[in-house]
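Researcher: Can you fold this with zinc ion in place?
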Amino acid sequence: MRKDVMFPAILHGGDYNPEQWPEEIWAEDVRLMREAHVNVATVPVFGWVSLQPDEDTFTFEWLDRVLDKLHAGGIYACLATATASVPAWLDQKYPDVLVVGADGRKRKHGNRHTFCPNSPNFRRLSTGLSRRLAERYRDHPALLVWHVSNEYGTYCYCDQCAAAFREWLKARYGSLEQVNDRWTTRFWGHTYTDWSQIETPTSNGERSMQGLLIDYDRFQSDSILNCFRAEAAVLRGVTPNVPITTNLMGPFKPLDYHKWAAEMDVVSWDSYPPRGADPAGIAFNHDLMRGLKEGQPFMLMEQTPSQQNWQAYNSLKRPGVMRLWSYQAMAHGADTVMYFQWRRSRGAQEKYHGAVVEHVGTSQPRVFQEVAALGKELETLGTRTLGGRVPAQVALLFDWDNWWAIEYSSGPSVDLKYVPQCAAWYKALHALGIPVEIVSPLADLSPYQIVIAPVLYMVKPGVAERLEAFVQAGGAFVTTFFSGLVDENDRVYLGGYPGPLRRMLGIWAEEIDVLSPQESNEVIFAEPFGNLRGSHAARLLCDRVHLEGARALATYGRDFYQGEPALTVNQFGQGRAYYLATALEGGALTELVRALCDERGIASPLPGGPMPGVEVMPRVSPSGETLLYLLNHAQTTVTQALPEGEYQDLLSGQAVQGHADIPPRGVLILVPA
Ligand code: GLA
Ligand code: ZN
């Protein structure tokens, strides 16, 4: 696998679908791309039928001409393998390719992303197309990066998948007895007596066994990954030096992106925040994607230059927002700024989706002008922003297995959702301007001083040992209610919650109380902890905790468990392990995070932290230079205090010192002068 993909410039461009347009327009496209300072075009993501109109006919000549034109215009190709949309002839000829939905019904041809990942015909024909593309364009000077398929993610429930699932289970667990045991099938008398009885979990079938459901998610994620892997292997064989990616979708539940990222040379993803999105929420998604490869830069593969078409209300991005959000992506690790799509389509599903070239077809519109201005600005940055790493001392753990397991469980509360819990801790760090890396529980934790694992419900093999080693060596570990409950098959660790985390946390959690949204308890800090003192609202769940070596930092204020621990800390080896037994609201959580960071001397790069509305991110370039990104998401000018020293803003060229006045939607990229 290649390491550290470095692009020759900040890639600026996006999805280009020339096959939807008469050839006369292509030259105009390239002319307009140059006017927009575009240097990359992703072609032809949905072009399968245009490249292969039937099984034995290949029509690559048009793509030859497109690539030649792009190259002549100085534009790189992010070359798609075109396998995301299956041709009608192919579905008709090989019906096994058509996916069966969760309702058990086989799809008819249509839409996109509709192939069964275990269809041998799909595998054969998709890799066949990839091979021909790779062989034809291996030496084409425009080829810069491979884009396999598009936004993978459709689960299939067909008989082919059922058969493959049984094989997957045999390989993973060895025997049917093991499967029965792992899935706790004796409950409700669900014991399987023959492999053939195991079916896919369709909505009219078995959906009451969480062990099965989690394994089916793992299996489908793996199956779809095998499609990517198969195409990537072909490409790697022919063009070993061209990096390979596929565009991911942020916190997308169906695919275990940690496993996926390990197979990709560079992570890329599609960011579509709705209007008015919380900047911290967008930042969380970027950081989740950056953390997939433990901090390696990623590609912003798609964003809309103006509006979407799939929200209920698709408002325009206000002037300056596209630029601001582009730099936000760069601040969080993006080395590319790319759009869906280049030219608005004339008809069909996405004709009202934003594009760089609007239906009027000229460079006159506001959107085009904003794109061109940004492209010009990005050119002035050269390669200086590329390859930077975020120097995070805090890690937030995120795990797809855990996500599936928490949300398949019946009880304890319908409001217990994994991503919002992680996002709440992230937002606290974001408000304080403290960079964080979001990583898998199986990542190397040695770069961090603090590891936060919100709702670490499932503790997979090896995780408790790694966390113990981290704390023993001096780290601070923080976890919450509903943690340490189950193993990788959603079987409860017997002998007391939080199971394998109990020793390190120095507590036993006896019971879990549940609060409706209208209810709250209180968390009382009798002694101040950082800025926390007095009473704060407790929400969602309240674990009843006994101290087994830990100390209570706060207690419950009400109900029959009044006075019992609500926040605990345990000295373990050289480090400390904290347990927050209930959910705190935003302000209190931020103060808790501040106190934890203060204890370790971890602070924002900005003195006193960012002003409200301001976002700060440092990126350290391969040369060792620190670039400090400052973004103002507020509607008013903000005066922000700066760290000591003299700086230069790479965007304006101006010298800054002491403080900076950042206009609404303004961006500064500071380097030491
Ligand atoms: C996704 C797809 C694109 C396009 C956009 C529209 O990101 O990858 O092909 O459909 O959505 O927002
Ligand atoms: Zn299938």
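Model: Folded with zinc ion in place. The chain has three domains: 11-156+244-381, 394-600, 614-672.
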